[in-house]
Amino acid sequence: MSLLVDTTSSGREYKVKDMSQADFGRLEIDLAEVEMPGLMACRTEYGAAQPFAGARITGSLHMTIQTAVLIETLTALGAEVRWCSCNIFSTQDHAAAAIARDSAAVFAWKGETLQEYWWCTERALDWGASGGPDLIVDDGGDATLLIHEGVKAEEEYAKSGAVPDPNATDNPEFQIVLTIIRDGLKTDPKRFHKMKERLMGVSEETTTGVKRLYQMQTAGTLLFPAINVNDSVTKSKFDNLYGCRHSLPDGLMRATDVMIAGKVAVVCGYGDVGKGCASALKQAGARVMITEIDPICALQALMEGIPVVTLEDVLGEADIFVTTTGNKDIIMVSHMRKMKNNAIVCNIGHFDNEIDMHGLENYPGVKRIVIKPQTDRWVFPDTNTGIIVLAEGRLMNLGCATGHPSFVMSCSFTNQVIAQLELWNERKSGKYEKKVYVLPKHLDEKVAALHLGKLGAKLTKLTPEQSEYISVPVEGPYKPAHYRY
Amino acid sequence: MSLLVDTTSSGREYKVKDMSQADFGRLEIDLAEVEMPGLMACRTEYGAAQPFAGARITGSLHMTIQTAVLIETLTALGAEVRWCSCNIFSTQDHAAAAIARDSAAVFAWKGETLQEYWWCTERALDWGASGGPDLIVDDGGDATLLIHEGVKAEEEYAKSGAVPDPNATDNPEFQIVLTIIRDGLKTDPKRFHKMKERLMGVSEETTTGVKRLYQMQTAGTLLFPAINVNDSVTKSKFDNLYGCRHSLPDGLMRATDVMIAGKVAVVCGYGDVGKGCASALKQAGARVMITEIDPICALQALMEGIPVVTLEDVLGEADIFVTTTGNKDIIMVSHMRKMKNNAIVCNIGHFDNEIDMHGLENYPGVKRIVIKPQTDRWVFPDTNTGIIVLAEGRLMNLGCATGHPSFVMSCSFTNQVIAQLELWNERKSGKYEKKVYVLPKHLDEKVAALHLGKLGAKLTKLTPEQSEYISVPVEGPYKPAHYRY
Amino acid sequence: MSLLVDTTSSGREYKVKDMSQADFGRLEIDLAEVEMPGLMACRTEYGAAQPFAGARITGSLHMTIQTAVLIETLTALGAEVRWCSCNIFSTQDHAAAAIARDSAAVFAWKGETLQEYWWCTERALDWGASGGPDLIVDDGGDATLLIHEGVKAEEEYAKSGAVPDPNATDNPEFQIVLTIIRDGLKTDPKRFHKMKERLMGVSEETTTGVKRLYQMQTAGTLLFPAINVNDSVTKSKFDNLYGCRHSLPDGLMRATDVMIAGKVAVVCGYGDVGKGCASALKQAGARVMITEIDPICALQALMEGIPVVTLEDVLGEADIFVTTTGNKDIIMVSHMRKMKNNAIVCNIGHFDNEIDMHGLENYPGVKRIVIKPQTDRWVFPDTNTGIIVLAEGRLMNLGCATGHPSFVMSCSFTNQVIAQLELWNERKSGKYEKKVYVLPKHLDEKVAALHLGKLGAKLTKLTPEQSEYISVPVEGPYKPAHYRY
Amino acid sequence: MSLLVDTTSSGREYKVKDMSQADFGRLEIDLAEVEMPGLMACRTEYGAAQPFAGARITGSLHMTIQTAVLIETLTALGAEVRWCSCNIFSTQDHAAAAIARDSAAVFAWKGETLQEYWWCTERALDWGASGGPDLIVDDGGDATLLIHEGVKAEEEYAKSGAVPDPNATDNPEFQIVLTIIRDGLKTDPKRFHKMKERLMGVSEETTTGVKRLYQMQTAGTLLFPAINVNDSVTKSKFDNLYGCRHSLPDGLMRATDVMIAGKVAVVCGYGDVGKGCASALKQAGARVMITEIDPICALQALMEGIPVVTLEDVLGEADIFVTTTGNKDIIMVSHMRKMKNNAIVCNIGHFDNEIDMHGLENYPGVKRIVIKPQTDRWVFPDTNTGIIVLAEGRLMNLGCATGHPSFVMSCSFTNQVIAQLELWNERKSGKYEKKVYVLPKHLDEKVAALHLGKLGAKLTKLTPEQSEYISVPVEGPYKPAHYRY
């Protein structure tokens, strides 16, 4: 690829779409700060002490306005930061520009190719001759994946001299990853080993990324400590649920202007993300149905008046299809062919493989009509009817709208800051092994507490007698670990 | 003004922002047609007969994608059409371009000045030497106003030779109207009289426009028949209510990306528009309060769990303020000064005078920061806090988003088509005098019926015995005139 | 019949179930007064002037605690009152006892036979030798019906000597009515004429009763003025809607203890009553469907996410069936046979003929199992499955629970008091002819205003400038007559 | 006490209110069976094998219709059962009668005194000379408490000869417990030791009971294995949440007939029970506020549009107060004095000490007016205003209504059956130590699955590829242990 890194006047590297949008980005960052009390409280509480002094942090996480406030919280606490997006459509170019100009090295723009995407990831991990980052903020686990695959390849190369063969996989994205690693072996066959050595740990944002980490922990292949931010209550029960309740209709409306009221909508999956989506659609006046594999989640849907169906049974009836499962192959091209004309198909769950984009793109005679970026009408030759696919099957709230709103991201990102502080502060203590950890409940409760004032809430205090009666400390934590909220 | 009218290759006049967006507009019009079954059914039912053959229709109504489908329904039925927008921010430029290129004379773009706005209105009414339109589709009543004011001025001029004095009013917009009329008197002192003579009637879309019409009817000054489309059940109880339920959060999200959940929102007015707004905000997780003058609407709010407050009592508590009253001077600059930092202030009710924009603009030392078009932060010098005003106080759903979605507009606009057909078909019968009429209930029910199939509904039929028992014809109308739905 | 009228120590007649419940009734009346601010305000405003001094009022309206507060408001204003219930199951015996002991002549108990029901109605209309009442408060129109049928029979008798033949109808209830009239002719062939002469008018509570009145008005057979209380906004849009939203689930729970969440519920009819029922069931977690004949109401349901189906299509799927139509023959025995085992069938609309009780009772081999009063399981011989019918097909909220709650009935009944005052105050003015009237909007608004304080609401006042701008008086009325709320 | 045990013709002991209600109880049990698919499926799956043959089960759990179906499931699987209620007001006398006549030894009636309550508990544990039960089904932990306190006293008595002194506590209920134990020591100083020896374990139903068990586990004083049924997802996230959402309004309506719409309601505590209550009140049209000590739960409320307040701040504003905390001293008499006239105060959380009933009863000059059983108006002498207290401060859904509906209790009780089976089947394996266990996730999922068919749900199946991709077995369990639903 012929991409060139740009450099600010102060010498910081970047690659963004349009640096002239930096002022606009700054205005929106200013607004977002008012909506992100948790992050701002971290600046107030920790800023003066500069706890991240000397720390290099690489982030691979949607380069949005909200992420900008996260980055500038990390830098306000003393960190040096390099950043890329974790989704080819999720960057907000004005946010990227403002951060690139003012605060950190950014490699991200809206509408990257997959090649460009991994080039950006590599750049964000590349701290020059002295190795990689001290800490990673990851979302979906791509930065973590690259290092793990890189180390694996370097080991094989050291042992046998073999280099990865991109043609060994038919996954086009993984071919790119292997190519990057293969090419790197020539110039520095220990690049990823050096990264691994330096790394104090990763904090991971999402269900999908966390699943990968636990799999590596189980397999014994995890190379550094990991904090599972996703399973903080103030993350998964807020961002996944309330964030999607906000951003799903936002994405639908910006992409299609369709009236949700009166429509039949099928949400595949009724986890936290699915619950948020179903709630939003129902409240907007749609008739919502869900599909589920898990009988408990299915029964929850029923208790909310939502029928549990199979996708096959409602293909010809529904107007809107949303995948939220974190699994692959949820809506196949064979399903899409049976849908109503102009049925909307979108994914807010996980990777674009929830929807069979590969099958759709390769359907004989299919015609793609770009209505506008991220909104495509695909017309089948046999029926001459079309379906509307959002964000090319990728996360539609980030591709078609601006992702989750600032306030709920403040909860998630305050967890990130706390997790990064934990990993950094304990870097020498041995507290964290090569395992996956969740934050202790008192920190989770602290994140929540930091967000109450903005909304005018007033907590009640336990009396000493009440505290004793229920054996709960006056200052918390207030619930046992297994409490489900 | 130095605005010049453009001309298509076929000789049709237009003035739009960017003709190159016509293809994009056409794609969105194609999608909208699928969502507007009532309009499409009109084409099927009446198209072949060309009932509007020979009719000239002028429209002054937000030049959106949905309106494009309305316009092309009118032309499909044989009409010739000229169009302008009824709001300086509400035009969708790609819609305007597609219509200008393909179907009708359009004078509209997003972000007109007030001068440009009235120039467009004048153009839409100007059918050349042979006078004005046969029919008007009006929204808010500006086209109707211009003719009435013009006729009044021409009468005065004929009587006394006096011309209107723009300085006689301190309303800057009305100064423009008077200037236009004054300037026209020089070239053709009977221009508006000729229009009046030709006009078969107007069909009016909104509560505000209808109110003006009834006032003129009462005063005996109405110059031609008017059909009150707003008070068709399938308009006011659908577009006003369900349209705003959809487009208020849409506008808020596109303009500010603010998280609605957790916020305190005050909706001023609990009529149909206010009910839609309050419902949307509540369902998105806001704590909603309303203000009302009418005890019945207030009691309705209470029955839905919504407190009824005065604006003064909650200024420092609320995060979002929405005006829906149809009245003026609802939120004054004295109120705005007492709001929280970054409180959002917007109007979805009527004209920009619901919010005291004049007072705000002239507040000593106030600073306006344009975040992006239609999203301004106004900072007060004394507190150094700011508020965010959407769409410069004009209809925020049209200024910041794309207005109501197609499906609900199909209900409203099918009423428009039917009203226009009534006025045209009865142009010689004397059925309609210079009064305000509502459509008969069976036509209202027909509009609803045309929209059921798209949503998969199946009506029940009265048996003859049941029909007799309740004295309601099997084919309807099903309710007495006073029924409230 | 061998029913005997009892007499209090003060000489007032009554017939109730159990006078020992009077104390309990009084306690509940005391509680209800706190919840009925409109009625209490009437006592405060009008009590001292005793406007009803000399007036005889007969009421035929569910003898509940709320009605007790109405009755005692009428007596507090000087009226003498006789009362019966308008439904064989709706009397609350403790309410009847308290009123009989303390305030008015009551003839009502829970579980009357139809014979007893009409005996009670006759007693309530029987003011002794000096004729009938001056005013009637009617609900469903049975008292009005009896007088009209009586007058008709007396006219025929005077003309031809013919007496009504109960066997001329196969409606068993109407046979009873004719029998009463026939038997009365022997003792006083001018009884109903005397009533008619004295009567100043009736105020009618319900949709069904009002429909009858308008039919008589159209036919020219209405014998006295009538005020349509049902169509006061503060009645039909409150009691019908919010009252049923409260009392439908109340009746279901008391009768069956069934979990509503997760169930499929079909509401037949989506008028005000149906809207209240559908809303309650949806919010409790049921999947709600409706049936409708009216396309406008159907489209409203769709906008709320409620599918519009035909009863036939969902017989085997639904768990709960509710009729709200005001029509007859909605759920037939042929439908019931196809329902799931233990499907619940109930009516909250109108008379018991919404459900084909006659067909059910006469179905060959059907078996009725009384679970408890008003809750019957009917088992079909062929399938050996059963359905559960509430309140024998009559209004289930009154039969199985306690009807609408006090607060919303205070709205309805304040309208009744105002209507009765109008009829009485204008008895000599000729203001009211033998027609049906609705109360003027300012009185409707007054009723609402009287209920705001209790709920802590604070109205906004129009400024004079605003008042002029929208041409609405500062003190109201605030809306045009056709406004739909 | 002079209570005498009755005996059926077959020799089984019982003490119930009225054996003549057994037929009515049986009819309602028949209906409930149709609504309790999980329990019925247990009978089908395990009945033939008679797994409980030889097992003695004592239950201390609200003796309702639903519990009757549980008891008869246990007996259908071979168990012998003795039962008491765990709340003085929660017994449904017809249910108790049916079970006493047909299936098990029952000692329970609605409206026990505390003395009677503990007499019943003692009877249920008393299996005659051969010791106590093999298994306990407990709710709130009273049966477990009695045994633990008994064993402790017997140990002290064996050691020092000292007997418990009831006057050593000022808790009147605990005085009764100590008296029972003291009196028992005289006749059999090893009674509770013998029980302890025989007991295979307890399965506990509630949050409160579970908390006690964990405290004993931590203290090392737990005498036998315990299964925490409460924290099965299909219990705490269903019964606590959806059960209360149903039964809170049911209790309010039966006790007071109050209109919930328009009222201000304060829910103390926003755990599962509080969430259910707040949701129900909000949906019924109340303005809901909550109090919380836990910032996470508080933030959840805010995201649903519910303000978080302190009780002190809203005492004069609210109409309805509900405690759901599981803690004591939530609403004190000092609070009650400041409430509005006829404010309703009730508890659905835990014991009657959530409300300061002691303080209320002993408030100088306070007057109690019994409106009807479980509905008392308490009038303060200084203000002469009153508040309405439900169920004497005990669980109002059981005291004033019929508790949770059958369907959701089927989920809870199927967990109980499975837990009892586990304890019994593993009685010799040593699998369960003297600790607290939760059921494994696959059993939790099984409980849910058993309830889907009744509601017409259709689950989706993972393909092998999907199963591998997300590392989840096709047959489940589908979620990690920490998943929160």
Report on this structure.
- Four copies of one chain form a homotetramer.
- The first copy, chain A, has 485 residues and is an alpha/beta fold.
- Helix content of chain A is 44%, strand content 14%.
- The first copy, chain A, contains 20 helices and 16 strands.
- In chain A, the strands form two sheets. In chain A, strands 1-2-5-4-3-6-7-8-16 form a nine-stranded mixed β-sheet, sandwiched between helices.
- In chain A, β7 (201-204), α9 and β8 form a beta-alpha-beta unit.
- In chain A, α2 (37-46) runs parallel beside α18 (406-425), α3 (65-76) runs parallel beside α18 (406-425) and α6 (142-160) crosses α7.
- The longest helix of chain A is centred in the last third of the chain and has 20 residues, at 406-425.
- Chains in contact: A-B, A-C, A-D, B-C, B-D, C-D.
- The interface between A and D is large, with 64 and 66 residues.
Brief summary:
Chains A, B, C, D: Substrate binds at residues 64, 139, 205, 235, 239. Four copies of one chain form a homotetramer. Chain A has 20 helices and 16 strands.
Keywords:
adenosylhomocysteinase activity (chains A, B, C, D), alpha/beta, 9-stranded mixed beta sheet, 485 residues, hydrolase (chains A, B, C, D), homotetramer
